Amino acid sequence: MYRSMIKSLEFTVSSPEELMRLGTQIAPMLRAADVLFLIGDLGAGKTTLAKGILSALTGKTDEVTSPTYNLVHIWDGGAFEIWHADLYRLDGPAEVAQLGFDEAFERCLTLIEWPDRMGDLAPDDRLDIKIEKTLGARKVTLRPMSQAWKDRLHAP
């Protein structure tokens, strides 16, 4: 019921650099215990967006890569830790549960690629960021999944 009333924000970006820049623009609103789901097909730009967010919060750019094989990269964001996870290689919630996200959700900024693997472990208080390939561009939709996120996204 609630989710149907939530207003999403949409952006169109035409290059990886613009997608990274969008990440740097999102970063200042983020804080400890925030959860972002990065949703999109292979090659959509999930890691590129994460790279923008992480570069803004950590000052690192070249070191940021996809955590596909490690599953989770942990970064020092200054005031809080940042977990960047890629769940693509996992089969479902049982494997996800072993990664310790419950603790991360309480104290870290958590960026999760391929969050569909989480199943019932997915927190309700999160921001879903969907990246879709379009002709010559990417459509990026920020969808708040709670009232708290809606208020933050639409604050004056």
Structure description:
The structure is a single chain. The chain has 156 residues and is of the alpha/beta class. It has one domain: 3-Layer(aba) Sandwich (Rossmann fold), CATH 3.40.50.300. Helices cover 28% and strands 27% of the residues. The chain contains 5 helices and 7 strands. It has a 7-stranded mixed sheet with strand order 1-7-6-2-5-4-3, sandwiched between helices. A hairpin with a 2-residue loop joins strand 6 and strand 7. Helix 1 crosses helix 2. The longest helix has 13 residues. It is globular and about 40 Å long. It starts with 8 loop residues before the first strand and ends with a helix. The mean pLDDT is 90.
Features:
Rossmann fold; single chain; seven-stranded mixed beta sheet; alpha/beta
Tell me the CATH superfamily.
Answer: P-loop containing nucleotide triphosphate hydrolases
CATH architecture assignment: 3-Layer(aba) Sandwich
Number of helices: 5
Tell me the count of domains.
1
Pick out the low-confidence regions.
none
Q: Helical content, roughly?
A: 25-40%
Write a concise synopsis of the structure shown.
By secondary structure, the protein is an alpha/beta fold.
Please specify the SSE layout and strand pairing:
Elements: E1 9-13, H1 16-26, E2 35-39, H2 46-58, E3 72-76, E4 81-86, H3 93-97, H4 101-107, E5 109-113, E6 127-134, E7 137-144, H5 147-153
Parallel strand pairs: 2-5, 2-6, 4-5
Antiparallel strand pairs: 1-7, 3-4, 6-7
Helix pairs in contact: 1-2
